[in-house]
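In the design runs reported in the main text, the only information available to the sequence generator was the tokenized backbone. The following block is the verbatim input for one such run; it is reproduced so that readers can re-run the procedure and compare outputs position by position.
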């Protein structure tokens, strides 16, 4: 630590820990040294250490677990919502992360009343249902359950581990507007297995209804999101 620097000691320590994480000296899930150990290692007071750790906790860089210790946080996919529709793939690329997808199922189903309402379809209409597990840097982040009207039948001929929005654009359909709603839900046994979380963990439920450039509905999607690995900023 540079004691003659204009940068406060707690900020220098926080920056040092950030650097260790950036260089993979400290990895997501690693347990941090205790306050006493950090104090001794860097020759600063425990008050300085606590202030540095508080800053890192506030920035979601590390997390405190009561009675266990402080750990390096899992990297979160950060979605900044502006008035623009973007795909999961594009969102990952903007974050400097690597997206990947595991296809769970795809095919025709009879729409239930909720799906009919969201897609504005007549009763007993068949729709395409696609279930996918979306991952960031190899870690499962969200379970995606999407419903599409008949005009999107070409999707069943596409590589569904890739971007469906790119497939839409290739067929002259541009996702242009959307409505999102958010709720908190508890993980089911199946969801916890797929997302790697504990059973009954609180998760984020996001529902999207997206229309094309002509105002016609393209899809209705339910996203079950592990909020430990996902962060949303809404700019209005």
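Verbatim output:
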């Amino acid at each position: 630590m540079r004691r003659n620097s204009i940068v406060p000691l707690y900020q220098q320590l926080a920056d040092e820990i950030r650097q260790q994480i950036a260089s993979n000296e400290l990895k997501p899930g690693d347990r941090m040294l205790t306050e006493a150990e950090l104090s001794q290692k860097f020759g600063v007071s425990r008050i300085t250490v606590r202030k540095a750790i508080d800053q890192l906790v506030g920035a979601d860089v590390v997390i405190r677990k009561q009675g266990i210790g402080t750990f390096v946080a899992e990297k979160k996919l950060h979605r900044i919502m502006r008035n623009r529709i973007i795909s999961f793939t594009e969102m990952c690329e903007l974050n400097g992360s690597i997206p990947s997808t595991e296809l769970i199922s795809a095919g025709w189903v009879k729409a239930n009343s909720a799906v009919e309402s969201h897609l504005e379809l007549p009763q007993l209409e068949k729709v395409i249902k696609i279930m996918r597990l979306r991952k960031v840097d190899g870690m499962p982040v969200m379970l995606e359950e999407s419903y599409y009207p008949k005009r999107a039948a070409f999707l069943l001929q596409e590589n569904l581990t890739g971007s469906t929005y790119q497939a839409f654009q290739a067929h002259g359909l541009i996702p242009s507007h959307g409505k999102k709603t958010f709720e908190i839900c508890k993980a089911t046994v199946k969801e916890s297995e797929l997302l790697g979380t504990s059973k009954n963990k609180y998760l984020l439920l996001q529902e999207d209804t997206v229309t094309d450039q002509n105002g016609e509905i393209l899809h209705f999607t339910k996203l079950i999101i592990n909020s430990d690995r996902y962060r949303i900023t809404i700019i209005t």
